[in-house]
Amino acid sequence: MTQFDWTERFAGTAALPAAARKRLTATARVIHIKRGDQVFGPMNVPESLFFLYDGRIRVSQSSDSGREIVLYRVEAGDSCVLTTACILAEEAYNAEGIAETDVTAIVLPKPAFDRLAAEEDAFRNFVFAAYSRRLIDLLRVVDDVAFGRIDVRLAERLLMLGDGLKEIRKTHQELASELGTAREVISRVLNDFHKRELISQSRGIITFTNKPELAAIAHSA
Amino acid sequence: MTQFDWTERFAGTAALPAAARKRLTATARVIHIKRGDQVFGPMNVPESLFFLYDGRIRVSQSSDSGREIVLYRVEAGDSCVLTTACILAEEAYNAEGIAETDVTAIVLPKPAFDRLAAEEDAFRNFVFAAYSRRLIDLLRVVDDVAFGRIDVRLAERLLMLGDGLKEIRKTHQELASELGTAREVISRVLNDFHKRELISQSRGIITFTNKPELAAIAHSA
DNA sequence: TAGCTTAAGTGACAATGTCACTGAAGGCAT
DNA sequence: ATGCCTTCAGTGACATTGTCACTTAAGCTA
Predict the structure, then answer these.
(1) Interatomic CA distance for residues B64 and A113, integer angstroms
(2) What is the C-alpha to C-alpha distance for residues B41 and A74, in angstroms, rounded to an integer?
(3) What are the residue ranges of helices labelled H in chain B?
């Protein structure tokens, strides 16, 4: 495998001394995952630790009844701590990570992780910070699900997903899975948004026609 | 302040060499918090890291509209990583910790924490494990709130709170805050449980009359 | 025992979730 | 093009949960 210096990419590794970085590029494997493939899941618990070099991973949790909710997304430069958590806690969970784009990731064997965490402050702080961000992400999810109105949450999510774009290519079912609700509910709310001329719809595509007003709804809580 | 050896109590410190432990008992402060007092909160972000020697802390999140949900409880021997998370992530959140009993805790200044995390594998692993447990706790909360029925969740919670007891001393409002719902909802469900002769009620007290059947409901999902 | 404070009950309604469908769009094979 | 076929979206009836505005009741305390 070609060695390239991915260590520039991570806050936790860019600051490391050259020797440590060289050792890292030698020990860690670089893997490629195709868009749509599962990165990890209940049936597919990784043995190693995971750093996302390029692409985006969607982490979601699904219920027994088949509904699903997106917990957060891991972006390039971040570590996927949920896999780490599972290795450490050795507990069951039913979250899975799906590559939302083609993904390039760094897989670091546990011994190398341990050594790095022991020896390098920058790396250790990076990992702690990654954990913290996820904890706080999850606090937000709990808050939204427990206390949020779904029209507000949907408006928010539409804007997030369509940031800088004129349209979003997602089905009602996919949006329902974003928010952990049912397709029919999304259809109803989108219909309402349509009647209020905030969006227009066609099969699998939602087009923004009034982002500011949508933003007003998103922030009305 | 009297120095006593609390280091026995924590998985992350019991295994440390005597020198490190001695240093710890010298650097860390032991604090006492009275039942009902706030341990941390949005207005009260601690500067230091927190290990629970004795007692129990209830960590909950509240909404703008005044509703509240219990996220998890920190038991003796565990670390309260949410405070840690906040220090590290320096992000806003609206969770708070309340002492559910009188509490004795160890407060470790950040520099001491850093040194220990760097030098001692056992300590570092302990902290990582504590983070992981909380992440997984929160996954469970998300699952419950997003996908769970409230009768099931209430039955579950009643059994958890009343483990080994014949009755629970909690108001409907307090139970509502456990599950992140409204008092009226709890009243309705408890009334139903009462009609089915699973519990009996009086002001502020719920008495079990049929735990096995309640357990059946709790596990029926 | 009267008054006060907090806990719990109630009914009407709104929001969200579920179910069992129907209809409609677009791809594909002939 | 025409007619399948699969997937996506719409619909109405109903169940569950949340909200609101109140009433009633319990237990304390003066």
Answers:
(1) 40
(2) 27
(3) 11-14, 18-27, 81-89, 110-119, 121-147, 150-161, 172-179, 183-195, 211-218
Asked if the Cβ–Cβ distance from A117 to B95 is below 8 Å, we say: no
Pairing of strands A56-62, A68-75: antiparallel
Which strand C nucleotides have any atom less than 7 A from protein CB atoms? 6-12, 15-20, 25-26
Distances (CA, A) of A30 to A130, A161, B207: 20, 28, 58
Does B220 contact chain A (CB < 8 Å)? no
At B162 the three-state DSSP class reads: coil
Name the closest nucleotide to B171, judged by C1' and CA: C7
**What pTM does this model have?**
0.93
Q: What is the rounded CA–CA span in Å between residue A30 and residue A104?
A: 7
Which residues of chain A have a CB within 8 Å of the CB of B88? 125, 128-129, 131-132
CA distance A53 to A118: 23
Instruction: Find tokens 């120095």 and name the residue.
Output: B3
Give the C-alpha separation, A106 to A108, whole Å.
6
CA angle A74, A167, A158 (to 5 degrees): 50
Cα B84 from Cα A128, distance rounded (Å): 9
pLDDT digit string (tens) for chain B, length 221 residues = 556 889 989 988 998 899 889 988 999 999 999 999 999 887 777 777 889 999 999 999 999 888 999 999 999 999 988 877 766 566 667 899 999 999 999 999 989 998 999 999 999 989 888 888 899 899 999 999 999 999 999 999 999 999 999 999 999 999 999 999 999 999 999 999 999 999 999 999 999 999 999 999 999 87
Alpha carbons within 13 A on the beta-carbon side of B100: 19
The CA distance from A39 to B177, in Å, is 36
Q: Which of A64, A91, A137 is nearest to B148 (CA)?
A: A64
Longest Cα–Cα distance of chain A, Å, equals 61
Q: Which residues of A touch B64 (CB under 8 A)?
A: 147, 221
Start-to-end CA distance of chain B, whole Å, equals: 51
